[in-house]
Amino acid sequence: MVTISAENDTNTCGINYMTNIYPNNEKLNLTLLQKISVEYGDSNKWDLSTLTNILIYSTRPITLTPDDIQ
Asked: Is the whole model's pTM more than 0.90, yes or no?
């Protein structure tokens, strides 16, 4: 089971996203450069197409935890 948490702009989070989330999402289609920028982890370096692609095609959690509700 994959746990989704807030992006924290580290390469560890980026690598975890690309290893655990990206392969399981058939709709999300990133170019090689977009994959590299996501793995790097700094969302400030993402271009608009990368951010838009992730926001539109990312799966959302089914239930919210108390921390998510805040």
From this structure: no
